[in-house]
Amino acid sequence: MKKKLSEEQEILALKRAAKYRREFLGNVSHELKTPIFNIQGYIHTLIDGALEDPNVNRKYLLRTSKSIDRLISIIEDLEILANLESEELLMDVTDWDLIDLVNELFEFFEIKSSEKNIKLSLDSNFDSLFVFADKEKINQVLLNLISNSIKYGKDGGCITIKIEKKEKNSLIHVVDDGIGISSENISRVFERFYRVDKGRSRSQGGTGLGLAIVKHIIEAHEQKIDISSQVNKGTAISFTLKNSIK
Ligand code: ADP
Fold first, then answer.
1. CATH 3.40.50.300 fits 93-242, yes or no
2. I need a surface site. Which of 63, 156, 185, 209 has the fewest CB within 10 A?
3. Would you state the pLDDT for residue 179?
């Protein structure tokens, strides 16, 4: 049962929530500003004459289109977060095969990973392993983690998804041999909009929301998530899922 908060505690919690909202809105508008100003700049330059200059017109339009893609990624991630946080967050928990999902995701990432010569491999003793979780949301978790491992991975590297079955839970590790994260940054990567290297993240189409979404989803399942990383060695993100009892 929830403990009743004292009046003082309630005021403190409200103040904290208000501060959090202020900071969040500040971050959102800051993140949206960059691509919007880029678009504005290129459109104005095109209107002012660059449209007739065959040396730059296509280039500026392509850059405009890239900024629009960026805006779309930010809005999509914000939408996912908003849905996760909304009071009506409905978890659609069912029994499904985790190995199947990982294989589907490997197919999905085949082209993206091959562009960097990254090998995707599954390390598991099972042909199928049924878990009890919201499949769509766990798909999102693995999508974000694999996508990060590719984004921050080294050319010619490898990404391994290791699955261990314990008594009640399964333990899933997404391991890469990429650029890694330093110890002073590691505790902050699950924060919204936190990025170790803003330039690198942006150039890779990152929004800084991916890991915040991942953590949110795992916690909504009342499961655990953990990260370990070493600069230039790689990163491992591990989380648990409830085994199916079927
Ligand atoms: P982004 O959209 O910037 O990738 P995330 O929330 O997914 O945002 O990750 C936050 C930051 O954590 C990233 O900007 C990156 O610096 C770091 N990071 C996440 N995953 C990895 C990884 N596998 N290897 C190295 N750094 C990572």
1. no
2. 156
3. 96
